[in-house]
């Protein structure tokens, strides 16, 4: 069983909340870790891939992820990305969320998050500012349960490759051959580990990958092609089923 390290931030016991801003060239990928504080992950520009609780989310600036204290997670940045993290002790947080929760970042919430920690974006957060941020977060939760990750190591290897290159058209049979495993075994690993078929999983990964492209203003047809959809109509229908809105409505 893998032991997930617990991180203790310096001076954290002396403050209810604090924020950290990271350099735009920071790659992230610190490895799975956890801490007792809740964490809000947000990028002011660029995007981030967050793996938390055996699920993953892609976060453009219009979305942030609330990671409850104790949940193992990692953050991988797609550079250049301006990562901001807000840490809050459970004692100072009235939000009831016990699982990772995506929130929509409104114009007001964006400005509040940018203002935390002073000019450098690092430092303790005043009680009044924290109350405003938590109030905005409380009404901004979205119904996005993320992309479930397979448990089987071979299926996870395929999943990792597809997240890095979502347009990769390689069929399951070829992945199985490369891994020297039966196609039916690999197919079963996806279904048993995620509740999704390989095709369904890849479709969700592609839709996630399209979010930062649409946020950046890329035309819908170009975003669809970039993530591997051959049909704009098919992309639009899948996007609406997953996110409840058209891809055009998400364009920045």
UniProtKB/TrEMBL annotation:
InterPro entries xrefs: AraC-bd, Homeodomain-like_sf, HTH_AraC, HTH_AraC-typ_CS, RmlC-like_jellyroll, RmlC_Cupin_sf
Entry superkingdom: Bacteria
Cited SMART domains: HTH_ARAC (SM00342)
CDD domains, per the entry: cupin_NimR-like_N
Keywords from the named record: DNA-binding, Transcription, Transcription regulation
GO molecular function term, any single one: DNA-binding transcription factor activity
Residues in HTH araC/xylS-type domain copies: 156-252
Protein name: AraC-type DNA-binding protein
């Amino acid at each position: 069983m893998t032991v997930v390290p617990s991180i203790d931030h310096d001076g954290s016991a002396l403050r209810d909340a604090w924020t950290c801003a990271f350099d735009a060239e920071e790659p992230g990928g610190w490895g799975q870790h956890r801490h007792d504080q809740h964490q809000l992950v947000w990028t002011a520009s660029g995007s981030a891939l967050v793996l938390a609780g055996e699920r993953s989310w892609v976060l453009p600036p219009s979305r942030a992820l609330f990671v409850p204290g104790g949940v193992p997670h990692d953050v991988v940045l797609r550079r250049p990305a301006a990562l901001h993290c807000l840490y809050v002790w459970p004692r100072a947080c009235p939000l009831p969320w016990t699982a990772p929760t995506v929130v929509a970042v409104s114009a007001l919430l964006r400005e509040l998050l940018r203002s935390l920690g002073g000019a450098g974006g690092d430092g303790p957060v005043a009680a009044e500012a924290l109350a405003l941020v938590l109030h905005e977060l409380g009404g901004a939760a979205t119904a996005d349960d993320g992309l479930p990750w397979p448990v089987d190591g071979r299926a996870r290897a395929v999943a990792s490759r597809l997240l890095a290159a979502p347009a990769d058209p390689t069929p399951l049979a070829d992945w199985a051959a490369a891994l020297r495993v039966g196609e039916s075994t690999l197919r079963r690993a996806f279904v048993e580990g995620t509740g999704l078929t390989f095709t369904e999983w890849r479709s969700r990964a592609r839709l996630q990958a399209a979010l930062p492209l649409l946020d950046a203003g890329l035309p819908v047809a170009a975003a669809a092609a970039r993530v591997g959809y051959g049909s704009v109509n098919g992309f639009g229908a899948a996007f609406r089923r997953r996110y409840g809105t058209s891809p055009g409505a998400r364009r920045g």
